[in-house]
Amino acid sequence: MMRRMVQKSPLDAPANGAPAWARYRRIMKLLMAVTVVTVVVALGLLFAFNGAVSVHYYIAAALGISFTMLLGGGLMGLAFLSNGTGHDESVDNRMPDRDKLWSPRED
Q1: CA angle, 52 then 54 then 58, to 5°
Q2: Which of 1, 28, 51, 95 is deepest in the core (most CB within 10 A)?
């Protein structure tokens, strides 16, 4: 059975990869700034509506908001990075025919 060789990813070439990763780092820096502003506003609103509650409440809220925003934004940025640079096209995702996989058993 002949196997097709996997195509090289455009991100493997330094000429293509360096600008793409620089753009990703720039987007992550912007996301970090937006996250800090969002956390400060959220903590201010929580303090305005709830008053002085346990410091653990504010720490948990800040960590939860930060983790959610940075993880979601980072993963979305990686999806855009791989799609925008042509990295997704280098993947061979051809599956065998459905009939070969799901044919009824003959006993």
Answers
A1: 85
A2: 28
